[in-house]
Design a protein that fits this description.
The chain folds into 2 domains: 5-97 and 187-223, Periplasmic binding protein-like II (D-Maltodextrin-Binding Protein, domain 2), CATH 3.40.190; 98-184, 3-Layer(aba) Sandwich (D-Maltodextrin-Binding Protein, domain 2), CATH 3.40.190.10. Helices cover 36% and strands 29% of the residues. The protein is built from 9 helices and 11 strands. The protein has helices at residues 13-24, 57-65, 76-82, 106-111, 127-135, 152-155, 170-174, 194-199, 201-223, and strands at 5-10, 43-44, 50-55, 71-75, 87-92, 98-104, 119-124, 140-145, 161-166, 178-186, 188-193. β2 and β3 form a beta hairpin. The radius of gyration is 20 Å and the shape is elongated.
């Protein structure tokens, strides 16, 4: 019997959002997956064909891109940041909608307008996307890489802007920040390792089609 395919699942909100899809394709996680006291790093599912590994969202692309996992669920924002050539993105899963935006304190936006600037200091965990975005405007973005509490960058005088994910905008408002512009919109995507797709095409395609069918069925139910 072939070894189970590994599906990298992001910890946090996207993992919860993915639960209905996993159930629909017959790959619901074993009970221990939801047990926070369980320290295992790999879990079984309702099918012997798929195992799950819960990892940090930014690590999903790396695990799949370098072949540690054959498939994964990850936001389009992460894919834009890493842009691994070995990642094939066959399905937009539709959930986890948010946007990657530029924001800052209103006083900073007024004092440091983008128009005519050649340099800008930005706090973000998306340095690659940020540099590309501002380079298209003719602005050199000096990125301060932070992995959390991005909003503190302008508050503590480290940067005049942040680039971060925005869902409702509540966190920005609570920290005195204003959304200036949207870089991209993001939803969760199914990603597949290209080499795995070539060497184990029958099994991998089976699950790509299962995910695609589950999403189509969900969309039909929402519009019915």
């Amino acid at each position: 019997m072939s070894e189970a395919l590994v599906l990298a699942l992001p910890k946090g909100r996207l993992a919860g959002d993915c639960q209905p899809v996993l159930e629909a394709i017959g790959a619901a996680p074993e009970a221990a997956f939801h047990d926070k006291s369980d320290r295992r790093l790999r879990f079984g599912t309702a099918t012997p064909e798929i195992d799950l590994i819960p990892v940090k969202p930014f690590d999903v692309a790396t695990f799949v891109g370098f072949g540690g996992a054959q498939m994964g669920v990850v936001g389009a924002d992460v894919l834009a940041e890493f842009d691994y050539s070995e990642l094939y993105v066959p399905v937009d899963l539709g959930f986890g909608a948010c946007r990657l935006s530029v924001a800052g304190p209103q006083a900073s936006l007024d004092a440091v307008p983008l128009a005519g600037r050649s340099h800008l200091r930005v706090a973000t965990k998306y340095p690659n996307v940020t540099r590309k975005h501002f380079a298209q405007k003719g602005i050199h973005a000096e990125c301060i890489k932070l992995n959390g509490a991005i909003e503190l960058g302008p508050m503590l005088g480290m940067a005049s802007r942040i680039v971060d994910l925005v869902s409702t905008g509540t966190t920005l408002k609570m920290n005195g920040l204003v959304e200036e512009e949207v870089i991209m919109h993001s939803t969760a995507r199914l990603v597949v390792n290209r080499s795995a797709l070539k060497t184990d095409s029958q099994r991998v395609l089976k699950w790509i089609n299962a995910f695609r069918a589950a999403v189509a069925q969900s969309q039909m139910s929402e519009t019915a």
